[in-house]
């Protein structure tokens, strides 16, 4: 799944490979693009969340209606104060069959792609709203989920902003939603591309050790089931700093 925005990336990813030039593409029905995102709620469960999630996303990034009060991350994201916005997006690196298709998609799968990939299959309203709030050039952590060693494994870049996720219309797709239609689409995707793979996995257990300190405001540690969440700038920088530190025992 995957993105294009010319925006100044943080120093930690400045050495990333240059962007691929690729044609604007529609969502494909291939195994990898259909499964890149971890789906944590069914469309039926997600439907129950719509009223609250359409007002405010679970990460604090408002997509469709501005609350009277904004938290620090919301103000920075919406106001684009420094031209930098950061996210975390989950995918499953190990094989799992859904409706007859393998939904596996890892950081290595993304790295092998020659063109940006559509991050489709998200079926949670909070996660969807975060996708809709993304801008071209935003950076995101690639997070391996639902696997033996969950954690952050690399960085990718949004190269194309939100468009309709047409896989929701296809009964043959793993995350088909009969309540979504071309006339009334409910689900969206962004296109992303590979930036770099970390030298080591920064595991969930390790991240949790900082939950009462540098990562106290990180949505991943507060709303663990959300497959697409925002990352405050201070948390982003701290996670990057962990890459070269000795890995904690898990």
Major β-sheet strand ordering: 4-7-6-5-1-8
- Rg result: 17 Å
Q: Give the quaternary arrangement of the chains.
A: single chain
Terminal CA distance: 29 Å
Helix content: 10-25%
- The name of the CATH superfamily reads ph1033 like domains
Structural class: alpha+beta
How does this structure look, described?
With 250 residues, this protein is α+β, with helices and mostly antiparallel strands. The protein has a single domain (11-242), classed as ph1033 like domains (ph1033 like fold), CATH 3.10.590.10. It contains 7 helices and 8 strands, in the order αααβββαβαβββαβα. It has helices spanning 31-35, 43-55, 72-79, 107-112, 125-133, 204-208, 233-242, and strands at residues 86-91, 97-98, 101-102, 117-118, 139-144, 151-164, 188-203, 228-230. The strands form 2 sheets. A 6-stranded mixed β-sheet has the order 4-7-6-5-1-8. A two-stranded antiparallel sheet has the order 2-3. The chain starts with 30 loop residues before the first helix and ends in an 8-residue tail after the last helix. The model is unreliable at 3-81 (pLDDT under 50).
């Amino acid at each position: 799944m995957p993105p294009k925005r010319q925006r100044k990336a943080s120093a930690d990813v400045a050495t990333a490979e240059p962007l691929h030039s690729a044609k604007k593409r529609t969502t494909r029905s291939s195994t990898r693009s259909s499964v890149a995102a971890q789906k944590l709620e069914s469309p039926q469960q997600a439907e129950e969340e719509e009223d609250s999630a359409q007002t405010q996303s679970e990460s604090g990034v408002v997509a469709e209606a501005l609350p009277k009060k904004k938290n620090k991350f919301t103000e920075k994201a919406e106001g684009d104060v420094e031209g930098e916005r950061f996210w975390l997006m989950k995918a499953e690196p190990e094989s799992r069959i859904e409706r007859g298709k393998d939904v596996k998609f890892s950081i290595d799968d993304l790295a092998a792609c020659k063109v940006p990939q559509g991050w489709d299959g998200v079926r949670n309203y909070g996660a969807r709203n975060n996708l809709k709030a993304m801008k071209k050039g935003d950076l995101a952590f690639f997070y391996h989920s639902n696997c033996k060693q969950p954690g952050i494994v690399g960085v990718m870049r949004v190269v194309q902003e939100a468009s309709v996720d047409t896989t929701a219309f296809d009964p043959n797709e793993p995350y088909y939603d009969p309540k979504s239609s071309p006339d009334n689409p409910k689900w969206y995707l962004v296109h992303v591309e590979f930036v770099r793979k970390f030298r080591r996995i920064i595991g969930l257990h390790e991240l949790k050790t900082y939950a009462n300190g540098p990562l106290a405001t990180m949505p991943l540690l507060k709303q663990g089931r959300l497959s697409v969440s925002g990352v405050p700038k201070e948390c982003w920088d701290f996670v990057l700093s962990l890459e070269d530190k000795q890995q904690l025992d898990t």
